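Forwarding these from the shared drive since the link keeps breaking.
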Amino acid sequence: MALRLHVGCGTVYLDGYVNIDVEVPGYSHLASERPDLAGLNRTTVDHYYVREESQATLEHGPGRPQHCVVDRYGRVDALPFEPGTVDEIRSVQVLEHIAYPEVPAVLRYWHSLLKPGGVCHVDVPDFEETARQLLAQPDEASKDWYYRLVYGSQKNPYAFHRSGFSPARLERLLREAGFRDVRHVLNTLHFYPVCIAEGIR
């Protein structure tokens, strides 16, 4: 059976994946201990978000308590798996929360975990396109949303954006980490600018 990791899963509990995130008391829970919450967060790759995202849901929340449900606790740079054992790593809106100088090492680490032929799927905000849209706004007040996209919601210590990407930068970083056959993936998940790419070990 293929070993697929959903790294930094947050409130998205993907079927067919080992869902992993950091432990935050009161917010994150093991699926084995809270199957009720896992059921609320459960979804698939083809329907990634249980509830459709919008500017309102990102700014004000979905109107109900949110919980992170995981199969295993772990940090993106210290996952509980041996090198060369993983078939896929999927990371959605996570890598921007890693400090700018640490991103290349995280990608090299993910590369080391994958089997030959394993896939790394990375989805991050598109800083360059967000900046273009910010500068195109007609007044200062309308720019606030774009500043939020750049810097993160900052609603908790994990909600700060610490690195920025463009499609070209993401591709370069994946190649420099050792990935081959890097290709860009069409955005069908988000209503705001993103870069999505996959690389093969």
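-- next protein --
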Amino acid sequence: MLTHRFDDALQFAARSHRDQWRKATRIPYISHLLGVCSLVLDHGGDEDQAIAALLHDAVEDQGGDAMLATISDRFGARVAAIVLACSDSTDQTTEPWKVRKDRYLAGIAEKDDDAVLVTACDKLHNATAILNDLETDGPAVFDRFTAGRDGTLWYYRGLAEALCARLPGPLTDRLATTVTRIEAAA
């Protein structure tokens, strides 16, 4: 059952990401957050996990540690812990992309179950968007990403392998299949 907390989180996410777009598109960023939330609920997630899905990028994109404190105050420690576990950094300016991604991949094995579900749904939604854009726009889609084609393929293959090992089942099987399709089309 979803309560007023979910409603509040939905409004908070919409306000926090109002001026943000998906990478190099005119798709409002909230579409990603709603998609991840939908996947979480479809795969048995509870209200806290659904709220964390709506807020999973807020720390990285909208204020770092200060945003994390706000999330904790408004939505509770469990939601904040999931959001933090889904973030590769609270400060995107201090470390190179590869360092953050290596650490994120290595940390999947240690994430708690709450965060693994949200992470798997986030990465599936992202991979599906990449595949759709690749089929529509061709290899130029990789120009949107910091690491380009090779780095993006490396990262998503690593995500699929780590998440399949940590959470075997239909959700991560779908992620692995989507990544294989991306690799074939790239």
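The domain at 4-185 is CATH 1.10.3210.10 (Hypothetical protein af1432). The radius of gyration is 16 Å.

- D.
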